[in-house]
Design brief:
The protein is of the alpha+beta class. The protein has helices spanning about 45-55, 60-75, 90-95, 95-105, and strands at about 10-20, 20-30, 40-45, 85.
Length: about 110
């Protein structure tokens, strides 16, 4: 089992919408001084990536988006991200990213 440090999220998912073959999440970093003044970042979570990380659709898409962002946070990759982020980005920079993201997926608590 993979163990990553538990940390408080520094990001906030402010909106989720469904697109063509994906979910789109607006993400803000309230405590980051270098946050884009033109608005929130957007994370695209493809249905293919979701199905690879979560078998059978048993977890909310937001939980998977959080795992992707937590992975990027844990590797220091958030500071290098463009305004639009694709869920496939981590696997392009680290061969074990998919395995580590799967380990970070936690269901979203009701009312959270």
């Amino acid at each position: 089992m993979i163990s990553l440090p538990v940390m408080k999220d520094t990001f906030k998912i402010t909106r989720e919408t469904e697109g063509d073959g994906c979910w789109m999440f607006e993400v803000e970093w309230p405590e980051r001084p270098d946050t884009d003044p033109e608005g929130p970042h957007r994370l695209r979570l493809s249905w293919e990536d979701y199905d690879m990380w979560v078998r059978g659709g048993s977890v909310e898409p937001e939980a998977v988006a959080r795992a992707v962002l937590r992975y990027l946070e844990s590797t220091g990759g958030l500071h290098e991200l463009p305004g639009r982020i694709d869920s496939s980005h981590p696997r392009r920079i680290a061969p074990d990213a998919d395995r580590r993201i799967t380990a970070l997926i936690e269901p979203v608590a009701p009312g959270a």
